[in-house]
């Protein structure tokens, strides 16, 4: 679903681990952009894509190495603004007649640094990047360094390890920075991006209202009058996809909600009620709790649990989908990060890192064509679109919930008793978080029931019940995370409520492990 009606910015990816952050910063400025690995960006690609501006990302390679990644030479001849970041700066300098030297200890910079404008360019820099204080914090991560800038470029700012921290050729509107303006450790990076895209002539026409209208039109063009099946999990992505599809094609859409018995308290009823009763969608509520829990009985290995759940989901989904006569399309809530990760940086366009089909191999197995109306959106954009579609904030702002559900929050063997205890404890914990006004400050929060019983005292009697672990993390994208710093008062109050209100738990702990080295979930 290419958004050809918008001015487009091309991000050429040279392998940086934070390239996605560039796109997110630009989307926040209502600029439509796409990330493409450098191998895929050919002369023909550039002609077809017709970017209004280009950004070269950072990368792990060295431009002094023979055969290192490069953009096509034609990129420099398009007459559009170009911004080079870190490795991207070094590529520009090397390609355009400058010199880059391999890293030396006195020129390498990793971590926080400060750039200062050159005296002749301080007025320009105060408007473009600096806030008027005379220096700006940035985040550096480079070993190689530019030793001579390319002809036509001038130095606009320096840092202790980068004498050419910011360079520019204003006549060609080529800009190059040694640091990473996309990371939050460069606090004023958004200003730099904003000035770059405004200089390029972007008007900020990439809005969710516009996307909604275009997506509806494209869905109608793609599916015509044919039935569409949507795998509805109750998560934000599939829910927004279902709402968008329903607005586009109405009763041609049937959602299949597979209830595997591993959902949170009252979750199945809430999902079905919202989509079937309040939004008038056709929803098949596949109540298959006995099937899933029966096959999981006695299983304790986490990877085996995941494989069982995945296999059963496909079997159950296909069973119900076969009941929908004439269905030709399967809708999924694939997001743009999934699309990016499905293209290998190092292996070329024919190699994928991982598949992101939400229902495994079903499209091929069932002979269905995919409809992915969210495949150009990031998670935060999906939430905005959900609000545009009328989904309640309480629903689209929910914390992420894993596909295997409570199975991976129940280390060891899964039993109905442990699941019931876990649901109740989790409901109390989330209620506490909401009552204290902390829900939106936390990326994800949940309770894990531990495979251990402990001795306790309640009243005058001895107990021998389960222990649980509370987990709450802050994160930007789930790739890294840190534990949320609850007060001791909050933790004490929450532990007291869980122990008093949930029969079967007599001890609470709080997980303060970051990611890495831990993961957010317990399994």
Task: Describe the structure concisely for a colleague.
The chain folds into three domains: 8-199, Class I glutamine amidotransferase (GATase) domain (Rossmann fold, 3-Layer(aba) Sandwich), CATH 3.40.50; 208-396, HUPs (Rossmann fold, 3-Layer(aba) Sandwich), CATH 3.40.50; 415-510, GMP Synthetase, Chain A, domain 3, CATH 3.30.300.10.
Describe this structure in words.
By secondary structure, the protein is of the alpha/beta class. It has three domains: 192 residues, Rossmann fold; 189 residues, HUPs (Rossmann fold, 3-Layer(aba) Sandwich); 96 residues, GMP Synthetase, Chain A, domain 3 (2-Layer Sandwich). Helices cover 33% and strands 23% of the residues. A nine-stranded mixed beta sheet has the order 2-1-3-4-11-10-9-6-7. The protein has a five-stranded parallel beta sheet with strand order 14-13-12-15-16, sandwiched between helices. Strand 12, helix 7 and strand 13 form a beta-alpha-beta unit. About 3% of the residues have low confidence. Homodimer.
């Amino acid at each position: 679903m290419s958004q050809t009606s918008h001015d487009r910015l091309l991000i050429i990816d040279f392998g940086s681990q934070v390239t996605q952050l560039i796109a997110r910063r630009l989307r926040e400025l209502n600029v439509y952009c796409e990330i493409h690995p450098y191998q895929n960006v050919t002369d023909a690609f550039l002609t077809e894509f017709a970017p209004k501006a280009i950004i070269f990302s950072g990368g792990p390679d060295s431009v002094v190495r023979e055969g290192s990644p490069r953009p096509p030479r034609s990129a420099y001849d398009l007459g559009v603004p170009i911004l080079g970041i870190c490795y991207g700066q070094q590529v520009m300098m090397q390609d355009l007649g400058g010199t880059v030297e391999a890293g030396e200890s006195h020129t390498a910079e990793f971590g926080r640094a400060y750039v200062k404008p050159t005296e002749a360019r301080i007025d320009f820099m105060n408007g473009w990047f600096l806030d008027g204080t005379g220096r700006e914090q940035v985040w550096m991560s480079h070993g190689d360094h530019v030793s001579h800038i390319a002809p036509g470029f001038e130095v606009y700012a320096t840092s202790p390890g980068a004498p050419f921290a910011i360079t520019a050729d204003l006549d060609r509107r080529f800009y190059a920075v040694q640091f990473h303006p996309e990371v939050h450790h460069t606090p004023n990076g958004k200003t730099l991006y904003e000035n770059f895209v405004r200089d390029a002539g972007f008007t900020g026409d990439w809005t969710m209202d516009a996307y909604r209208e275009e997506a509806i039109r494209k869905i109608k063009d793609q599916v015509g009058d044919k039935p569409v099946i949507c795998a509805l999990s109750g998560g934000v992505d599939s829910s927004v996809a279902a709402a968008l599809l329903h607005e586009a094609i109405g009763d041609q859409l049937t959602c299949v909600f597979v209830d595997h018995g591993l959902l949170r308290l009252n979750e199945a009823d809430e999902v079905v009620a919202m989509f079937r009763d309040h939004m008038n969608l056709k929803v098949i509520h596949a109540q298959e709790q006995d099937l899933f829990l029966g096959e999981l009985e006695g299983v304790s290995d986490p990877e085996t649990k995941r494989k069982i759940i995945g296999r059963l989901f496909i079997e159950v989904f296909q069973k119900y989908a076969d009941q929908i006569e004439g269905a030709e399309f399967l809708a999924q809530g694939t997001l743009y990060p999934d699309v990016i990760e499905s293209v290998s940086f190092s292996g070329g366009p024919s190699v994928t890192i991982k598949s992101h089909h939400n229902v495994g191999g079903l499209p091929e197995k069932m002979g269905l064509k995919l409809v992915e109306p969210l495949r150009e959106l990031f998670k935060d954009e999906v939430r905005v679109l959900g609000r545009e579609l009328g989904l309640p904030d309480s629903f689209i702002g929910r914390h992420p919930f894993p596909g295997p559900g409570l199975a991976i929050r129940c280390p060891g063997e899964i039993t109905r008793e442990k699941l019931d205890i876990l649901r109740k404890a989790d409901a109390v914990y989330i209620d506490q978080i909401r009552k204290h006004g902390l829900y939106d400050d936390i990326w994800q929060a949940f309770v894990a029931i531990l495979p251990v019983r402990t001795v306790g005292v309640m009243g005058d009697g001895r107990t021998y019940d389960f222990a649980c672990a509370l987990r709450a993390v802050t994160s930007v994208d789930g790739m890294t995370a840190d534990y949320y710093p609850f007060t001791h008062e909050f933790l004490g109050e929450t532990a007291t409520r869980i122990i008093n209100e949930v029969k079967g738990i007599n001890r609470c702990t709080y997980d303060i492990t970051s990611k890495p080295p831990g993961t957010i979930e317990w399994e």
